Amino acid sequence: MSLTGLQIFKYLPGGKKEKEANCKKCGFPTCMAFAMKLAKKETTLDKCEFISDELKALLEEAGQIQQAEIKFGPAENQITIGNETVMFRHDKKFVNPTCLAIKLNSSDPDFEGKLNKIAGYCVERVGENLKVNAIALADSDNSFAEKAKKVAQAKVPLILISSNVDNVKKALSETKEAKPLVHLENIDISKIIEIEKEFNVPVSITANNLESLVNNSAKALENKSENLVIGLQDMATDSLIENLTYIRRAAIENKFKPLGFPVISFIDKISVIPENIIDKTIWASTLVCKYSNIIVLDYFNEALIYSLLTLRQNIFTDPQKPLQIDSKLYPIGDVDENSPVFVTTNFALTYFTVVSEIEASGMPAYLLITSSDGMSVLTAWSANKFTGETIAKAVKEFNLENIIKHRQLIIPGYVSTLKEEIEEDLPDWETIIGPNDAVDIPDFINTYK
Length: 449
What we know:
With 449 residues, the protein is an alpha/beta fold. It has helices spanning 5-9, 13-16, 31-39, 53-62, 111-120, 144-153, 165-175, 189-199, 210-222, 237-252, 277-289, 302-315, 348-361, 377-382, 388-397, 418-425, 441-448; strands at residues 69-72, 79-82, 99-105, 123-125, 128-130, 134-138, 158-162, 181-184, 203-207, 228-232, 235-236, 264-266, 270-271, 294-297, 329-332, 341-344, 365-369, 408-411, 430-433. The strands form six sheets. An eight-stranded parallel β-sheet has the order 10-9-8-7-6-3-14-12. Strands 15-17-16 form a three-stranded mixed β-sheet, sandwiched between helices. Strands 1-2 form a two-stranded antiparallel sheet.
């Protein structure tokens, strides 16, 4: 993990109170200013002629990559995995969302139908389009290369799964531009390295125990192969989670290079998981939370996939930066000058929930979104971010009085105490107390009519 400005400052002349402190030779007024810029990579180490060997060593160590960043898939739909720098989300946001892939057999009689269904699956949640990220194509008949080409033509990131090196080479000759990830099963590590070097594609290295995985990864590193994904398979669930945690800790905290790569997990390669897809999805959700960078599912169920996509979205948001939308006046449906006006904050989940309920009511309406730093209604109100003043400011900023004929604003029932405050700031307007919860908006609108 990178050093902070304060950590760097302690090793500079200013931090050590030496005579060279704040000499300005680096171009900055103080050692603290230089340290802060250095931490942000906005200046270079050589600007200070008094840098100690100890600080140089610390900066070199801090600059080492903890987990490699690997990319695969076509340029226009590329998947990026890895490059994680922390063990826990509250320390700093996780970087690249877990890649969710669906396994298809090349011999599947409904291959094209399933491919089209998976490729076309997309749902919107809080302003983000959620979809399956890749197809993991298993070599199960002579059409492997042909089916790989079809996946590549669909512009879907591809994972090639085979135990036959020649079949993989043939498939790669058809899909090299799509830059697939190659997973060779029961193949000597030297052959896997050859594929990585010959075709310049990422490859996966897996084993059924941690020691073998470390040995295989170390051999790849000795051969200058670093475009790697690693994984464990044929392991019971409790052992798998324990070992995945060990892998992430070894990479992040100890910077142990053989384990410093993204991790791939195959649901159908985990022992003792029941065959039903509910249990498989439960364990897949555990792997989203516990350090798998790629999860390959051997089934496609839209409802269960949605639950995994929702979980992933929540895990990979920045906990210090709430999802928020632009503050403005949103027309919902075929509005006119008589349409009601609802008011709420710019927390994305609040916005999409309210929009959904207004649409369900069948009555077109305006939704006035105030600036509230992405906080929910009660949080913003308690933080003095959702007030009569901010609502009045939004009404004026978005020229509401020239858009509608009436002079009524509907506010959430939980902040009914804002009524007098709003009407004081907007004396020509009436404040209507709406429902507490968005789910009651349709019934409220029937009463409002």
